[in-house]
Amino acid sequence: MGKSITRRSVLQTSMAASFLSTIPAVSFAADDVYKPAVPGRPVPPTNDFDKSSTAEQVTEGINLAGQVALVTGCNSGLGFETMRVLAMRGAHVIGAARNQEKAAAACAQIDGKTTPLVVELTDLPGIVTAANQVADMDVALDMLILNAGIMAVPDRRQANGVELQFAVNHLGHFLLANRLLAQVTAAKQGRVVVVSSAAHRWAPEEGIQFDNLDAAVGYDPFKAYGQSKVANGLFSRELARRLAATTATSNSLHPGVIKTNLGRYLPETEESDDEPRSFRYKSIPEGTATQCYVATNPELAKVTGYYFDNCNPVVPNAHMQDDALAAKLWQVSAELTADYLS
After folding, report:
1. I need a labelling partner for 175 at 20 to 30 A (CA). Which of 7, 147, 154, 335 fits?
2. How many CB atoms lie within 10 A of CB 231?
3. How high is the pLDDT of residue 277?
4. In Å, what is the CA distance from 266 to each residue of 10, 52, 256, 329?
């Protein structure tokens, strides 16, 4: 028997199709309206990489020997490929996953130096424990890549008093990054790389619904996901401002649309000859390229507070450049995690 068609399934399919139409990005140019997060810092250079570039290609010739990276969501998809490529280039990669079994199994498959770490992003005390374990390693973090996430959870769920996608995609990473900032700033040029999404365009009209973070009113799985992705971008932007006096940087990015475990709640879709030729799913190596580029490219050493797609700077929507919204998000996030921040 085929799957029944419900109002929810029709809505989800429609929203998924709508997302695909948002993918073509506006390239960063002199006449684009962009408000730098940190005035006076270099504008990121453009390059010839595109949506078909892979993580191996964008890191070719880069020697990461002696550098340390931490990657969340290392056990599958983009996180696993990121760990593989960084280790291949010589980095020691701390691979973080939800439990020890997943983290250890992923690390065991990598050629290179890796260390498994348990980071369950809804477990705030566990995040503190993980950060303390990294501190005990007595290493500086050259790269902190906040990659893990969930998408379009079909029914309203909560963790730590907020909607689940906001809790996992933003709040857990907010706490983890803050607990590891000493290690990031101890590096010669530490980089925080935040995986956001073009789905920030799905967010509610306000960008962040501070009076409805638990999604008690009008839960929509796609708007909730979009809100969490706006939060990723705003967090990265505010962090860039706060790190401005250091050598560390913070940038966010859209990886592309890739068939990974992230889309497990989405309706099944098939590529066909009827799809616009301008769109195709990226492969995992292609989807990993932008975060590896932002994490490693020498030309980005002083670039901070930007948003990237296809390894190039692009202009996100207005919410992602709203400094007042970013400051409020930081304040609220700090209040929600206050018992674990220091």
Report:
1. 154
2. 31
3. 44
4. 11, 24, 16, 28
| Distance, CA of 228 to CA of 141 (rounded, Å) | 25
Q: What is the mean pLDDT of each run of 10 residues along the chain (342 residues)?
A: 35 44 41 81 94 97 98 97 98 98 98 98 98 98 97 90 97 98 98 94 92 95 93 98 98 85 50 50 95 98 97 92 97 98 90
In the sheet with 92-97, reading across from the earlier edge strand, the strands are 114-118, 92-97, 68-72, 143-146, 191-195, 249-254, 307-309, 312-313
Cα–Cα dist 193/252, whole Å: 6
Strands (E), 272-327: 307-309, 312-313
Best CA proximity match to 297, nearest among 57, 14, 106, 31: 57
* Under 8 Å between Cβ of 115 and 107: yes
Q: Which of 34, 219, 265, 340 is catalytic?
A: 219
User: What's the pLDDT score for residue 32?
Assistant: 57
CATH superfamily, with its number, for domain 43-337: NAD(P)-binding Rossmann-like Domain (3.40.50.720)
Position 266 scores a pLDDT of 52
Contacts of 328 by beta carbon, 8 Å cutoff, 6+ apart: 208, 210
Secondary structure E strands in the chain: 68-72, 92-97, 114-118, 143-146, 158-159, 162-163, 191-195, 249-254, 307-309, 312-313
Q: What confidence score (pLDDT) does residue 212 get?
A: 97
- Three-state secondary structure call for residue 282: strand
Q: What is the pTM of this model?
A: 0.89
pLDDT of residue 15: 45
| 34 labelled catalytic | no
Task: Report the largest interatomic distance among the alpha carbons of the chain, rounded to a whole angstrom.
Answer: 62
Cα 19 to chain centroid, rounded: 17
Whether 112 and 88 have beta carbons less than 8 Å apart is answered as yes
Supply 114's token pair.
């890796």
Whether 246 contacts 191, CB under 8 Å: no
Please give the full DSSP string across 105-161, using - where no structure is assigned: HHHHT-SS-EEEEE--TT-HHHHHHHHHHHHHTT---SEEEE-------SS--EETT
